[in-house]
C-alpha cells in the first residue's frame, strides 16, 4: 500500500509498505478514508521530535472505516466509520484512570501513531488499544466534519476545559492557526462574555472576523493585547489566556495579558526554552497549565459536531490524493495559496 514515510531528518518520501495486520488482541485495522497534515509532522521533519522513529509512516490525524478488530475490541466492529485518536492509551493505568491519557504508562502510551509507530498517511493503519483509540462517527457526520476530532479539535476541547472558563469570562486566544481556530470553537461553547484573538497573519485574522463576528480580532503588532484584554474585561486583563502560537513573543504576551489570579493555558510547543520572569510577575498570582492534550473526550466532540455546535470544515482549504501528498506537504510547509489545513484522500 502507499504510505508517506519519515525516512530521515529533513526527508519524507512516498513509498510502498505492506498492509498492516492485527498484532495484539486490542488492535484494529482501519482503512483510511481521509487524513491530514499537522504542524507536528513538520516538527518531525525538522528533527524537533526526538522520539520520532525513522522509517515510520507519518500521520496522526485521520478518519476511516474499521476493516478488522482483535478479539478484545468490542466498542467498534468492521464497517464502522471512526475517528482515530492521536494518542494511544491503555485505559487502565493510574494516568488513564484520571483522564491524563497523554501520560499513559504503556510503552506506546501518548503520541505514538505517526511518530513511534506507523500512522495514517497511508491506505491502512493499525491502531493499538482500539477500544480507547477509536470513536464511532455518527451517520449524519461526514468525514470532513470529523477529520480533526482525534488531534487538533481534541486539543482545542482540552484547552478550553483546563482553562476553567466560566460564563461571562474574558478569554484571550493567541494564534489563529488550525489549532487556535479549533480552540476558538470550543471556547465559544463555554459562553464567555468576550473573546479576544491576536493573530499576525492578515488572512487568518480575516478568517476569524468572517466566521466569528462576535470575536474581537487584533494585530498584536499594532495594538497592545494586554491593554485590549484589560479594556474588555474591566479587571486588568483576561480571565483566561490560551497561547496557541508558540513563539517567544507570544509566551510573554500570554502572561502579560492575564489578569491577576487568571489562568494561562500553554497549548503551543516551542523550539526553545521560555523564561518566566518571576520578579516581574510577582503579585500577579497566575496559574499556568501546560502540556500535551489529554485526548479522551472524542465522543463528546463528535456529538457536538452532530448537533452543529462545532464546525471546523472551513479549515480545510485544500484536498489532495495520497499519491500527491508530497505536493500537499510543500504547500502546507510554505503556507502557499492561503492554506490552513490540507485533507489527503487515500
Ligand atoms: N499541546 C498539544 O498537545 C498540541 C496539540 C496540537 C498543536 N499544538 C501546538 O499548537 C501550536 C499551534 O498549532 P497550529 O497547527 O495552529 O500551528 P500554526 O503555526 O499554523 O499556528 C500558529 C499561529 O500563530 C500565529 N502567530 C505567530 N506569531 C504570532 C504573534 N506574535 N502573535 C499572534 N499570532 C502569532 C501564526 O501566524 C499562526 O497562524 C503549535 O505550536 C503546535 O505544535 C500543541
Ligand atoms: Zn497533530
Ligand atoms: Zn494507561
Q: What does the model show?
A:
With 346 residues, the chain is of the alpha/beta class. It folds into 2 domains: 2-151 and 294-345, Medium-chain alcohol dehydrogenases, catalytic domain (Quinone Oxidoreductase, Chain A, domain 1, Alpha-Beta Complex); 154-290, Rossmann fold. 26% of the residues lie in helices and 25% in strands. The chain is built from 12 helices and 17 strands. Helix 5 (152-162) packs across helix 6. The protein is globular and about 60 Å long. 49% of the residues are buried. One zinc ion is lined by residues 38, 40, 60-61, 86, 151.
Write the layout of secondary structure elements.
Elements: E1 2-8, E2 11-16, E3 28-36, H1 39-45, E4 62-69, E5 81-84, E6 87-88, H2 94-97, E7 110-111, E8 124-127, H3 130-133, E9 134-136, H4 143-146, H5 152-162, E10 170-174, H6 178-188, E11 194-198, H7 202-211, E12 216-218, H8 225-233, E13 238-243, H9 248-256, E14 258-266, H10 278-281, E15 287-290, H11 298-306, E16 316-321, H12 325-333, E17 341-345
Parallel strand pairs: 10-11, 10-13, 11-12, 13-14, 14-15, 16-17
Antiparallel strand pairs: 1-2, 3-4, 3-8, 3-17, 4-5, 5-9, 6-7
Helix pairs in contact: 5-6
This protein binds nicotinamide-adenine-dinucleotide (NAD) and zinc ion (2 copies).
The site of one zinc ion has 10 residues, from helix 2.
